[in-house]
Design a protein that fits this description.
The chain is of the alpha/beta class. α1 links the parallel β1 and β2. α6 crosses α7 and α8 crosses α10. It binds 6-O-phosphono-beta-D-fructofuranose. The site of 6-O-phosphono-beta-D-fructofuranose has 11 residues, from loops. InterPro entries: ATP_PFK (IPR022953), ATP_PFK_prok-type (IPR012003), Phosphofructokinase_CS (IPR015912), Phosphofructokinase_dom (IPR000023), Phosphofructokinase_III (IPR012829), PKF_sf (IPR035966).
């Protein structure tokens, strides 16, 4: 091994730069390799010449440890196997990416991504003889075979702070405050921040809710002397007809408001409560990474570089039982991790009297 590449792919999150920094430390200081940071996920490899940043060790790279986003750039658009072409069709540009990788003379590639990106990178690796090692990142925390992914902890911190702040304004105005958080398919951010922030109601896509149950809970809180309520809802929660109501979908249908607004309208009609909605959006992905995300990213960066040194490819670094181990990339992709309905968080929420929207049995 003489030269490795690294890229960030999919939606950004806090902690990506910290992972790249750790890879450069380990690769340069321990192994004496060159490191090329590829621009904008695989898009850099589509350019001719391929676009990359030569990454050298600088004495003071503290800024990378704490800087949000990814200085390499990223994208969640442009799957090389179904690439949007100018004529409106999609085409396969995978061979161009593979050629770009080989043009750079890379011996291995570290891909930092979530399930979608890692599936694409793995397919490219198998097709093009790329020695791939993966680092998990996703604020949604729904990737299998790892207890942690870079970005999740920061997102939960930001969402929890939002819940904390909503308590005071909700209490002042006796309102039902609804906070809509990210999670394209899973409710990990919502249930974690909901418990940590002392929410009254948490809705996650893994649990089918009943509007009657939610309204009953708000009335019961009132009867007990709490004249406000805090509700946190994952964006992937559906309306009562089982249709997803994400903001992306709302915009594509030329209407305003996702599931948070839908719930707010229903609650105020049924209970007479005054409601307000906050959509946290991309605030959850930006900003300074939490200490835990910096730590996770640094440990993952070092371990991923070591996997290359050991010649162990098609593996993903993973956090399990207090340490970093590695698993086949395939298993991480195959074992999508929804919120465990029999797990600690659901049990804890129920025990704390938090309404999860379930109909009373
Ligand atoms: O998967 C990460 C995520 O932040 C989801 O939580 C969210 O639904 C989606 O990405 C938003 O993507 P975009 O950056 O395209 O708006």
């Amino acid at each position: 091994i003489k030269r490795i590449g690294i890229l960030t792919s999919g939606g950004d999150c806090a902690g990506l730069n910290a992972a790249v920094r750790a890879v450069v430390h380990r690769a340069v200081d321990t192994y004496g390799w060159e490191v090329y940071g590829i621009s904008r996920a695989t898009h850099g490899l589509l350019q001719r010449p391929p676009e990359f940043h030569p990454l050298t060790r600088v004495p003071d790279d503290y800024d990378l440890l704490v800087k949000g986003g990814t200085f390499l750039g990223t994208t969640n658009k442009g799957n090389p196997f179904a690439f949007p072409m100018p004529d409106g069709t999609v085409g396969d540009r995978s061979e161009e990416i593979i050629e770009g990788y080989h043009q750079l003379g890379l011996d291995a590639l570290i891909g930092i991504g979530g399930d979608g990106s890692l599936a694409i990178l793995r397919r490219l690796a198998q097709q093009g003889g790329i020695n791939l090692v993966a680092i998990p990142k996703t604020i949604d925390n729904d990737l299998g075979s790892t207890e942690r992914a870079i970005g999740f902890d920061t997102a939960v911190n930001i969402a929890t702070e939002a819940v904390d702040r909503l308590h005071f304004t909700a209490a002042s105005h006796s309102r039902v405050m609804i906070l809509e958080v990210m999670g394209r398919d899973a409710g990990h951010i919502a249930i974690s921040a909901g418990i940590a922030g002392g929410a009254d109601i948490i809705l996650i896509p893994e649990i089918q809710y009943s509007m009657d149950r939610i309204c009953d809970h708000i009335t019961t809180l009132n009867d007990r002397g709490k004249d406000y309520a805090i509700m946190i809802v994952a964006e992937a929660v559906c309306n009562e007809n089982g249709e997803k109501m994400t903001h992306q979908l709302a915009l594509s249908q030329c209407r305003l408001g996702g599931v948070g607004q839908y719930l707010a309208d229903n609650i105020s009609t049924r209970t007479g409560a005054e409601t307000r909605v906050t959509v946290l959006g991309h605030v959850q992905r930006g900003g300074i990474p939490s200490p835990l995300d910096r730590l996770t990213a640094t440990a993952f960066g070092v371990a991923a570089t070591d996997l290359i040194a050991e010649g162990r490819f098609d593996r993903m670094v993973s956090w399990q039982n207090r340490q970093v181990v590695d698993v086949p990339i395939e298993s991480a992709i195959a074992h999508y991790q929804a919120v465990d309905l029999n797990g600690t968080l659901v049990k804890t929420a129920r025990a704390m009297g938090i309404c999860l929207g379930e109909p009373v049995r």
